[in-house]
Amino acid sequence: MFLDNKKIICVAILLLNINVLADENHNNIGFSMDNGELKPINSNGHGPIDAMGEHMHKEGKWMASYHFQHMSMEGNRIGTTEVSPEFIVTNVANRFPPPATLRVVPTKMTMNMHMFGAMYAPADWLTLMFMGMYMEKSMDHITFQGASGTTRRGTFTTTSSGIGDTKISGIFRISENNMHKMHLNAGISLPTGDTDKRDTILTPNGARNNVVLPYSMQLGSGTFDLLPGITYSGKIDKISWGGQYIGTFRIGDHKGYSLGDIHEATSWLSYQPQPSISVSTRLAYKNEGKIDGIDGRISLPVQTADPDKYGGDTINLYFGLNLAGQKGVLRGHRFTLEVGIPIHQDLNGPQMETDYIITAGWQFAW
Ligand SMILES: [Cu+2]
């Protein structure tokens, strides 16, 4: 199901890619409004797809978007050191003893996010943004037998899916000239994602229990979150670049806990050999705090049940491809693909490490 979605989107993008390029070949790129030709739509006119609220729109303009993101995590680490399931169940203390050590280890997690966005600019200095999402999560585990030792009892998988949190933002122009643009981001995340998801687990003594899933398998933060930020972007000829800081600050708590605050900083560089196509690279730093407080319903001998086993520092490197349709039915449509790999992960572990992130997107402005 997960892979099928991804394949369909990849194939669709490849087909559209061929169309856009075929279209382009018939053109002399001598666009200008004077001789009746259409003005080119720049594929790098927006920043990388995974950076949120990185562009604004002119007064009266709308934009609709759909992004699909697939994230894959496998294996565990403590700090920057990779650790095995056997190491975890013989060395890491259980926050909820007995038993004294952890007895269940997550080994693999996949997350799919379907993001539906809308943007509207009531004025040149203000763009409004809405983003809703649907999420699918899946986590594989190994359960070790009894209270100690490294004998495996079995494996199990938990899943959760549904609506995630909803983001509403205002983007405010600070300054703009031919080369440089700067704006402020002011958003709020509404707790529309479920925090009561349940599924069945395999316990160390062999029971199959239906429990409230740990924090990382829930679909929302449970709290209203403030999302302040600042974005800069620049452009000369075929080269564009930019940088952004976005924070996520939880307001109050929910069911006795709040997820850690997040600081994200990213910078990008993109090259557009012709308006219909551009390639980009991006570096993204993320710092996330531990969970504050505890949900009294979650007390299992597994790292994901421990609020202190969340957050850390990560740096991801991304590569992106951006296409902008110029003519016919494709005009105004943008297609983007961005692939990210972690180059640094220092986690409050044991915690699962990220392998890769793929984001495919469609945007249409009118
Ligand atoms: Cu937009």
CATH class division: Mainly Beta
Strand percent estimate: over 45%
Superfamily at the CATH H level?
A: Autotransporter beta-domain
How much helical structure, as a percent, in the residues?
under 10%
CATH architecture: Beta Barrel
What's the shape? elongated
Mean residue pLDDT: 90
- Characterize the biggest β-sheet: 11 strands, antiparallel, barrel
Which strand order do you get reading across the main beta sheet? 1-3-4-6-7-10-11-13-14-16-17
Bound molecules: copper (II) ion
Word description of this protein:
- The chain is mainly beta and 366 residues long.
- The protein has one domain: Lipocalin.
- The protein is elongated.
- It binds copper (II) ion.
- The site of copper (II) ion has 4 residues, from loops.
Summarize the structure.
The chain is mainly beta and 366 residues long. It contains two helices and 17 strands.
State the main characteristics:
single chain; 366 residues; mainly beta; Lipocalin; two-stranded antiparallel ribbon; 2 helices; binds copper (II) ion
Which helices and strands occur, and which strands form pairs?
Elements: H1 2-25, E1 62-79, E2 81-83, H2 85-91, E3 104-123, E4 126-144, E5 152-163, E6 166-176, E7 180-190, E8 198-202, E9 208-212, E10 224-236, E11 239-251, E12 257-258, E13 262-274, E14 277-288, E15 292-293, E16 312-324, E17 333-365
Antiparallel strand pairs: 1-2, 1-3, 1-17, 3-4, 4-5, 4-6, 6-7, 7-10, 8-9, 10-11, 11-13, 12-15, 13-14, 14-16, 16-17
Copper (II) ion is lined by residues 55, 57, 63, 119.
